[in-house]
Amino acid sequence: MEQILSLFTDYTFQTVALGSAILGLLSGILGSFAVLRKQSLLGDGVSHAALPGVILAFVLTGSKNTEVLLFGALISGLIATLFIISIVKHTRIRFDSALALVMSVFFGLGLVLLTFVQKIPNSNQAGLKRFIFGQASTLLKRDVIFMIVCGAILLLLVCLFWKEFKLFIFDAEYARSLGFPASKINLLLSFMIVLAIIIGLQTVGVILMSAMLIAPAVAARQWTDRLWVMVTLSAVFGAISGILGTIASSITAKLPTGPAIVVFISCIVLFSILFAPGRGMIQKMLHRKTLQRSLKNKGGNEDVTTI
After folding, report:
1. Using one digit for the tens of pLDDT, what is the confidence trace for 290-304?
2. What is the pLDDT of residue 24?
3. Are 199 and 147 spatial neighbours (Cβ–Cβ below 8 Å)?
4. Which runs of consecutive H residues, i.e. helices, occur in the chain?
């Protein structure tokens, strides 16, 4: 306990923990919309598609600044998202197939470019590989400030378009009948999700970013039917996981922060699936056994296995 308390006075820990908490909060909020839109795998596709943008940004500018590399990732992620939306809109290919196609093509291109760039002198010092697996320990004060600014913009947009997002998610056809520009709302929401994914690449990497986007929302969905409660719980779950993962990686030798964060949020998901009131598996099992016992005592012969 003393070791854990002493961490909170360490500057490096404070920087990483704050950055991880911000990532968890933003991922939880925007991941809620992705889950409710039944586009949970969008985070996986966009995060993988961001890799070639990172590498091309380094090749074209020669800059190692995180902001420049993330800007390249943002452009690549937006292009991939537009490709996915266009394929679904103009062809008979379904969303999951379009996403898998775009993700594999962009990620494969990113790996090819990474192999080529590794032959360039000083490319290793650019830290390009940290965007694949994440390296939260490399977060600097300016990185956290960048995350705070982007996060503030995203939160402001969520507040401004809350009613529109809510209506579009639950009844897009009704929104169109009222004259809402559904396509523009969809693009705005997709852009916000992409930006949240790009912010988290340095912390958890392209491999695990989809878990950060979806897991808090899945856990929160088990506890409530109200959107604002779900979004709030999801943000809290994400932030707590970010802080706990940072603590675990700080007190355990050679434990990377990103995977530790994902493990903690996965534990929250598992607990929610098992014990959440109303939807938890344990409660449903107990309710089923209670019904079976009640019918048996009444002498019922009905098959209750499907209750």
Report:
1. 888 888 877 655 554
2. 92
3. yes
4. 2-7, 11-36, 42-49, 51-61, 66-90, 95-117, 130-133, 141-160, 162-170, 172-177, 182-221, 227-251, 257-275, 281-297
What pLDDT is recorded for position 154? 93
**What pLDDT, on the 0 to 100 scale, is given for residue 14?**
87
Kindly write down the DSSP assignment for every residue of 91-151, as one continuous string: SS--HHHHHHHHHHHHHHHHHHHHHHHTTSTT-GGGTTTHHHH--GGG--HHHHHHHHHHH
Domains and CATH numbers, the chain: 2-210 (1.10.3470.10)
Low-confidence ranges of the chain (pLDDT < 50): 304, 307
Q: What is the pTM of this model?
A: 0.83
* Both structure tokens of 205: 């990497």
In eight-state DSSP terms, residue 225 is: S
